[in-house]
Amino acid sequence: MKNFFTLIILLTSLSLYSQAHIGASGSYDLENEYSKLGVGINYMLTPKVTIGGGLMITPFDVDDDYEIMLNVKYNLGRFNIAAGYMFHEMPDDHMGMNMGSMPMHSSSENHNEPYVGIEYKLFKNKKLKLFYNQSESMKTLGLMMPIFNIGKKHMHHNMDHSDHN
């Protein structure tokens, strides 16, 4: 019975701050020179901690190239620090690395690797964010914007209460 109450209290306390954001992003991989489009979902566990996932594709530059990213973010005001794990597919001849020494084949390889990132909220009252993610095989710079929110709205302690008079 004690475990049941502990679980209920934990789920209730997490739901006090819970909010999901679904958003879209556009980015540019500085290392590979690929443009990327993405969609993601983030779930706010507490006001400081968010877990999320996303899918990025390169529709204009490389066929069948994608990245699936899972992460945890920590909020530091207008900055978010992110760390996660990325699953992606890369062409065999990635950046010309098969310079004749290896046989060329048309298949793609799957790669899994950790990454780190930082987000910066550009405007205080807007949700538009500039982000930078880096891993062993990518350095991505881009913009992301929430499309819609699911869940509770948060009251900010520094709100102007003059409209309540």
Radius of gyration: 20 Å
- Broad structural category: mainly beta
First-to-last CA distance: 47 Å
Count of DSSP E strands?
8
Beta content: over 45%
Helix content: under 10%
Q: Main β-sheet: number of strands, strand sense, barrel status?
A: 8 strands, antiparallel, barrel
Mean pLDDT: 77
**Helix count, DSSP H or I runs of 4 or more residues:** 1
The global form is globular
Neighbour order of strands in the largest sheet: 1-2-3-4-5-6-7-8
Order of helices and strands: HEEEEEEEE
pLDDT < 50 stretches: 92-107, 154-165
Could you characterize the architecture of this molecule?
With 165 residues, the chain is mostly beta strands. The chain is built from 1 helix and 8 strands, in the order αββββββββ. The chain has one helix spanning 2-15, and strands at residues 19-29, 34-44, 49-57, 66-76, 79-91, 108-121, 129-135, 139-151. The protein has an 8-stranded antiparallel barrel with strand order 1-2-3-4-5-6-7-8. Strand 6 (108-121) and strand 7 (129-135) form a beta hairpin. It starts with a helix and ends in a 14-residue tail after the last strand. Mean pLDDT is 77; it is low at 92-107 and 154-165.
Provide key terms for this protein.
eight-stranded antiparallel beta barrel, single chain, about 160 residues, mainly beta, 1 helix
